Amino acid sequence: MKTEHDFVHLQTHSEYSLLQGMCTIPSLVEHASRLGMWALALTDTGNLYGVPEFNAACRKHDIKPIFGCEMNGLVLLARNMTGYNNLIMFISCGGDEEVLAEYADGLICITGMAYSAVGRSIMDEKYDDAEMSLKFYRDIFGDDHLYLGLQNHSTDYNQLLPHEEMVNPSLYGFSVDLGIPLVVTNHTCYLEPGDEPVHSVFTRFHDNYNDMYDIPHHPLVQVGTYEKDFSTDQHYLAGAEEMYSRFPFDEEALENTVKIAEQCNVELPVLSPQFPACYPENADADSYLEKLVFEGLQDRYDEIQGEVTDRANHELAIVREYGCANHFLFTHDYIRYARDTHIPVAPGRGRYPASIICYALGISDIDPLHHRLIFECFINPRTPSTNIDIDIGHDARTYVIEYLSLKHGRDSIGFIPAFNTLSLQRAIRLVAEVLGIIDIDDVLSLIPGGEEVICQKGKVYQDLIEISTRLAGIKYRMSLHAAGIVASPRPLTDFA
Question: Which helix (H) or strand (E) holds 274?
């Protein structure tokens, strides 16, 4: 519900901004709901990983979700599905400004913050460069979809931080000279002012993980020739009244947050599982699957009649009803390739050996009739889904992935990201390194259960336990799934 002093946060980072944002998405959206916010943007750095979770959480709390990201000092927000798809493409290109114009349709751009190209030029007193950058962005986004971002992260709202005191006056001037409207943003990375000490330690994990995991430094760590960090506790999700108190003379820039939010209307489609087509053009998935199944049964059984045909027809009917034939065809195709090229494939594990279809296609080498396995253990009509986990020789997996990439297109095959969360033990070790505690092994030997004993060793150990406990469960690095891939009938960037 909109209030008299309405404000929408347009620059918000969750834990998917690795080692930058400290908010889990459920806690972020719940906090926004408690503040009475009707809309909220998610702008994680260089990615959209949190979008599905954010969308679901916002719908649950009746908050309008705004999807965006922060790339190279630009806050980019999707106005519509065209903009959302273009945002996917721009991120996939690594945020290269050379292709920004190609993917600008449907996007709103906010720039001018201290760590942006415009802000750095202003702080280096290169005003012509700043103006040139703004004209470049205006040519790309037009007069209606480019904004200059005002910020005030000072604890004393009447006294700006040094870098903001340098940048903001120039933004006012450029707004008048170039006709680019202003908008207030708050660089939100945690929920409450009291979270700042924990966040300060959290961001310093970069020192240990930057090189190892290729995670970019936070944009505020280094700004041109100016060093700064989160020395203020104002990077939290502030309420509307508080944001108005920070900018008492910039009501239009505050109201522009609402104007932008009203322009952003992205309804993400509900997607069903889709696989690359693995059947001839003159056939359909169901009929082709039936053909392959009965051909395969001839190799598996001496007689194709009675229980064998009844079971096959029963399974095929269920597969046809739930539209998952292409999953079997896709799996059969790469398993056939693996076996033909002598790549080791396990005989079957999990639930799919209960399917005579899998047995006929060579996906499984376990006879479900001989072992009296029930198909409904694999596909339950009450909750239909097909889960086929294939074990392929570790050293040869790359050959299978290469086969799929060449057959279906490299843009249609992708790896699955996996996010590592901080266990309490891992958090304690990392926090201890930041705090300079050297007897970490002695500390860890008391975990779990010995937290009180540790705290008795002194104030720094109390801080260690408190901070580590707060950070436990937060995502802190990304890796790739050990073997899983994503396959689609079209380029993966076509799917929201």
Answer: none
